[in-house]
Each structure stands twice: as structure tokens, then as C-alpha cells.
Design brief:
Pfam families: FeS_assembly_P (PF01883), Zn_ribbon_PaaD (PF23451). InterPro entries: Fe-S_Maturation_MIP18 (IPR052339), FSCA_dom_sf (IPR034904), MIP18-like (IPR002744), PaaD-like (IPR011883), Zn_ribbon_PaaD (IPR056572). This is Phenylacetate-CoA oxygenase subunit PaaJ. Helix content is 20%, strand content 23%. By secondary structure, the protein is an alpha/beta fold. It folds into 2 domains: 71 residues, GMP Synthetase, Chain A, domain 3 (2-Layer Sandwich); 62 residues, no CATH class. It has a 4-stranded mixed sheet. Strands 1-2-3 form a 3-stranded mixed sheet. The longest helix has 14 residues. The protein is globular and about 55 Å long. It starts with a helix and ends with a strand. The model has no long low-confidence stretch (mean pLDDT 92).
Length: 162
């Protein structure tokens, strides 16, 4: 029988299907004790609508692999950061035409509230040009922004630094 951790590591993200939950960094732990599989996942942000699908997909994959007793837990601490996306995951995003995030901002103490969007330099995943502009702060999902390359004119999504 394939290990529960190996099965869980193959489950893909419902919003970014080129990534596994492990690539995305939301798969935090998998343990087996007395026949019960306990999986911990961390949402990319509070209220992420994909969490229910992630839970269902993990449970389905594990039950299909022969694990009858499965519990999926949500782990909120530490909070997910885009820095948890693996190097392989970043390569898969770029190969799919989605700009991977840069380094997440480092903050201590309260997060300051500003009314303007952060300025981020993002290279085009199609041609590599850094001459890109944000078209919309929110793309197909809240964790992605819609951008356009001024050099090749191609639109693309960018996973935001969180």
C-alpha cells in the first residue's frame, strides 16, 4: 500500500491544477495512528473558497487508496505564506504562464493599512520582460492578480506575495 503521505502529496490544487497541495505548501502534515490518517492543511488566506474542495479531494484520494478512516484538519498557525510554494511549484506556475510570487513581505507587529496597492515588479512568464503592468488586483481567484506584458502584449496572471 502506498503511504498516506505519498497519496496526499499527489492531490492537486483546485484553483491551480498544475500544482499539488504539497507544491503549494498548504499540505502541512500527514500522520497515521491506529489506522486513522490525519492530514493538516493551511488555507492560503482566510475564507479561501477552495478549502472544502481540498478537503474532499484529499479524503477521496486517501479512501480510494485504502485508508478508510481519514480526518482532514485545518491548521491556521503559522499562517500560510507564498514563500511556502516549492521551487518545483514555482517552475510549474511559470511553465503554465502564471508568474510565481516573489519573496513575501516581512513584517513585525501590526500590518499597516494603506489604500494603495503594493508596487510589485513582475517578469512576464512568456517573454521574461520586466516591463509589465497590473490590470486588475484580482484575477480568477483572490490570490492572483491580472497583469499584461508591455513587451509582448500578452496577459498573464501573477500569484501575489502573501
Amino acid at each position: 500500500m502506498v503511504t498516506a503521505a505519498a497519496v496526499a502529496a499527489t492531490v492537486t490544487d483546485p484553483e491551480l491544477p498544475m500544482l499539488t497541495l504539497a507544491d503549494l505548501g498548504v499540505l502541512r502534515s500527514v500522520s497515521v495512528s491506529e489506522g486513522r490518517v490525519v492530514v493538516a492543511i493551511t488555507p492560503t488566506y482566510t475564507g479561501c473558497p477552495a478549502m472544502d474542495t481540498m478537503r474532499d479531494d484529499l479524503e477521496h484520494a486517501l479512501v480510494s487508496a485504502g485508508y478508510a478512516d481519514v480526518e482532514i484538519r485545518t491548521q491556521l498557525s503559522p499562517a500560510w505564506t507564498s514563500d511556502w510554494i516549492s521551487a518545483s511549484g514555482r517552475e510549474k506556475l511559470a511553465a503554465a504562464g502564471i508568474a510565481p510570487p516573489g519573496a513575501a513581505p516581512r513584517r513585525a507587529g501590526p500590518i499597516p493599512l494603506t489604500l494603495s496597492a503594493p508596487v510589485t515588479r513582475v517578469s512576464c512568464p512568456h517573454c521574461g520582460s520586466a516591463d509589465t503592468e497590473e490590470q486588475s488586483r484580482f484575477g480568477a481567484t483572490a490570490c492572483k492578480a491580472l497583469r499584461r506584458c508591455r513587451a509582448c502584449q500578452e496577459p498573464f496572471e501573477h500569484v501575489k506575495e502573501i
